[in-house]
Design goal:
single chain, alpha+beta, Ubiquitin-like (UB roll), 6-stranded antiparallel β-sheet, 6-stranded parallel β-sheet, 15 helices, 25% strand, elongated, FAD-bd_FR_type, Flavoprot_Pyr_Nucl_cyt_Rdtase, iron-sulfur cluster binding, oxidoreductase activity, flavoprotein
């Protein structure tokens, strides 16, 4: 089932993108100027003169002289009569054919030369024209891709870059093309998926797309059936209750001690419902069923979802293990908690909100009740983002940062309530403030909202309050043993690593070797650089290595990607001690995946690698 879901999601991207292309190009076809689309703004009709048949030689004479003649017809070229002999004739005029011409008066063979092709083109052109070039094409024309015969292209110097095409065998005027027609041809190419320029909608791309669409519908049907089979589709009316109704669910702790019944809304997600009752199950994937941490035990008759099957063994599933985020209150009468995080609800007041890079803000909070919130370095808190109106451009944007945001799509939008996790960035134990570094996720286009959580929390004004729960201590330094600590981070993923470093150096005054590899694009994205430089000067056991992927000319430090420099370190300085070093990672998923693969390739075990999921 995970493969079905992955396939369905990627196919939805492909199908959705093509549907948008069809909508856009279809709208253009309805609004376009059809005269311009034809490319004939400068084309004029050519009147054929009356021919005195008595002056023409007998066609039989021409046929007797010719070889393998399929048909003979009379044509007028440049006001002169000719016989057109077809030695090989396609079903349609643009199909591959073989023609020859004979002067209908003299009986002499006639060939469409460069001069003749130019004259035929000028005869069809309205007004005076300056010829840029006349070229005999050896390959298929982009302007007339269906034409399979050899063509002369006459390029004219006008405002529309007109080109006139003449059949090199028959002298037939194929047509005019210009920039207007070429743009329309490009739109047609997108609309009919004619990416190979075949000049036809009956192409392999459409056939492949039709197959993909069939698979998209088929995987969607399988997913829908799976959700229905597992009880995920149960409309309230069919259940004979409304959402205002509640049901009682008996709750037990991991020692089978009853915690009493809890009232849950009908069809309410168990992870959210338990949190509403101040029971916080660990979760880092936001309810997607991928982290496998919100474990509960229920009656084994509760149906298993594909996420359950991917996270638990067959024995655990038979014992009733399920993921709370994948089930709702209607499915059970009781549940047992496996791993409950001790965390309390907090009302936090924003003390300050400052940009520390063009897209990252440092937010400082304090508890409204003035009680210090205790936490271990590396912890995170879950913020409750209320339904509200948002703006893609931050409020209180400093003047010196305006040019960084000038290309960001400006939009106002509304969003529903949600929750987001943010890691604490301070760990020195010298303040009761809660510090967070949050990157504002911008919108790639007008159809996609920017990051709801990051935009909301970074637009709060100092003095504002917000609800949160935590701290959750799931990523932290292993019990001190003197082992070297190697930390690898990037972007706003620095937050928990910064907290770990401060905890070791300032709070605990640890003498263990600490290596901090931090990746950023440019100097502007190198947050807290001065702070870490000062720590490296103050503590000889702390080594700070910033790495820039897009450095400026004045940068004299390491360049490239942070994991590449870690590879050099593994191959040299840590090669002898890698079995006793500890590795801590936080940053974008791609960076962490490649770094973990690198560490494993160097024989470093899972028990020596800790990482904070960057969700």
């Amino acid at each position: 089932m995970p493969m079905i879901k992955t396939l369905h999601k990627w196919l939805s991207l492909l199908v959705g993108l093509q549907l948008l292309i069809w909508l856009g190009t279809g709208l253009y076809f309805n609004l376009m100027d059809h005269e311009k689309a034809s490319g004939t703004q400068n084309r004029q009709s050519v009147e054929s003169p009356t021919v005195d048949l008595q002056l023409l030689i007998d066609p039989k004479t021409v046929l007797q002289a010719g070889t393998n003649v399929v048909s003979l017809s009379q044509v007028i070229l440049l006001s002169h009569p000719y016989y057109l002999l077809a030695h090989e004739k396609g079903l349609y005029r643009h199909f591959k054919s073989h023609y020859s011409l004979v002067d209908a008066v003299t009986g002499k063979p006639f060939v469409i030369t460069k001069t003749i092709a130019t004259a035929i083109a000028l005869e069809s052109y309205k007004g005076s024209a300056k010829i840029i070039s006349t070229v005999k094409l050896t390959e298929k024309s982009d302007d007339f891709p269906k034409e399979q015969n050899s063509l002369w292209r006459v390029n004219i110097d006008d405002a529309l870059n007109t080109s006139v095409y003449v059949d090199a065998g028959s002298g037939r005027l194929i047509g005019h093309s210009n920039d207007d027609k070429r743009f329309v041809d490009f739109i047609f190419m997108l609309h009919f998926m004619d990416y190979a320029s075949e000049g036809s909608f009956n192409n392999v791309q459409i056939i492949v797309f039709a197959i993909f669409t069939l698979f998209f519908a088929f995987t969607g049907l399988i997913w829908t059936v799976e959700l229905a089979y597992n009880g995920q589709y149960k409309p309230a009316l069919l259940l004979g209750r409304t959402l205002a109704n509640r049901k009682m669910v008996d709750i037990f702790d991991k020692h089978d001690k009853s915690l009493g019944p809890l009232a849950m809304f009908a069809h309410e997600n168990l992870l959210d419902s338990l949190l509403n009752h101040d029971i916080a199950l660990p979760s880092t994937c936001g309810g997607g069923g991928t982290c496998g941490r919100c474990k509960i035990v229920v009656d084994s008759s509760v149906k298993m979802t594909s996420a359950d099957k991917s996270q638990f063994t067959a024995h655990e599933l038979k014992s009733g293990y399920r993921l709370a985020c994948q089930h709702n209150s209607d499915e059970l009468e009781q549940l047992t908690l496996v791993d409950v995080t001790e965390a309390a609800s907090q009302e936090l007041r924003l003390i300050s909100s400052e940009f520390i890079s063009p897209y990252i803000k440092e937010l400082r909070f304090k508890s409204v009740n003035d009680r210090p919130v205790k936490f271990r370095a590396g912890a995170f808190m879950r913020f409750f983002i209320p339904a509200a109106k948002g703006n893609s451009i931050p409020a209180y944007l400093p003047a010196e940062l305006l040019h960084h945001w000038q290309d960001v799509v400006h939009m106002e939008y509304e969003h529903l309530a949600c929750s987001r996790n943010y890691s604490l960035a301070n760990g020195d134990g010298q303040s009761d403030e809660l510090v967070f570094t949050v990157k504002i996720q911008t919108s790639p286009n007008e159809r996609v909202k920017p990051g709801i959580g990051s935009s909301y929390i970074c637009n709060l004004a100092p003095g504002s309050t917000i609800e949160a729960v935590g701290p959750f201590e799931e990523f932290y330094a292993l019990p001190s043993s003197g082992k070297p600590m190697v930390m690898i981070g990037a972007g706003s993923g620095m937050a928990p690593l910064k907290a770990l470093i401060e905890e070791q150096l300032i709070q605990k005054n640890s003498s263990r070797e600490i290596y901090f590899y931090f990746g950023a694009r440019s100097q502007l994205d190198l947050i807290y650089s001065d702070h870490f430089q000062q720590l490296s000067e103050r503590f000889s056991n702390f080594h700070y290595l910033p790495v820039l992927s897009r450095p400026g000319q004045d940068w004299g430090g390491a360049t490239g990607y942070v994991q590449d420099h870690l590879a050099k370190y593994l191959a040299t300085g840590l090669q002898k001690a890698q079995d006793k070093a500890e590795f801590y990672l936080c940053g974008p998923a791609a960076m962490m995946e490649s770094t973990i693969d690198l560490l494993k390739d160097h024989g470093i075990g899972d028990n020596a690698i800790s990482f904070d999921k960057f969700e």
